[in-house]
Amino acid sequence: MKLIINNTSMVPIYEQIMEQIKAQIISGELKENDILPSVRTMAKELKISALTVKKAYDNLEAEGMTVTVHGKGTYVAASNTQLMEEERRKEVETDLEAAIQKGRRCGMKEEEIRSLFELIMEDE
Question: Whose CA is closest to 17, among 29, 30, 5, 1?
Fold first, then answer.
């Protein structure tokens, strides 16, 4: 599994791990019952604390994305179509909100931002 950690990001490392694994599950790159690397293996590959990886795995399990079987490992949970749709929607909403905030910081008015969104939608 290839994950990229940005040590200069303001996003905590465990959240970066979670987001990348979620993206792989949503895209279908990781499928139901695929096993994730062990906490130790992932920590060694990324050169980070095993506790950080464990926190990411625990949070993924709490969100219903993975299942951990003691002594066996962490697996991708059964696909919950509704959960996947919700995750995709959240991801897009976050990106759109960031774009709107950036437009506001740059001094754009609501109508200018709206027209940009309309322009982008027309190209599709």
Answer: 5
Hey, how many other C-beta atoms are within 10 angstroms of the C-beta on 21? 23
pLDDT given for residue 45 in this prediction: 95
Q: What span, in angstroms and rounded, lies between the C-alpha atoms of 69 and 74?
A: 6
Q: What is the DSSP secondary-structure string of 48-82?
A: S-HHHHHHHHHHHHHTTSEEEETTTEEEEPPP-HH
| Torsion 51-11-79-86 (CA) sign | positive
pTM, whole model, 2 decimals? 0.70
The token pair that represents 35 in the structure block: 């096993």
Rounded to an integer, what distance in angstroms lies between the CA atom of residue 101 and that of residue 52?
A: 30
Which has the closest alpha carbon to 99: 89, 119, 114?
A: 114
C-alpha distances in angstroms, 3 versus 54, 82, 96, 102? 15, 26, 24, 27
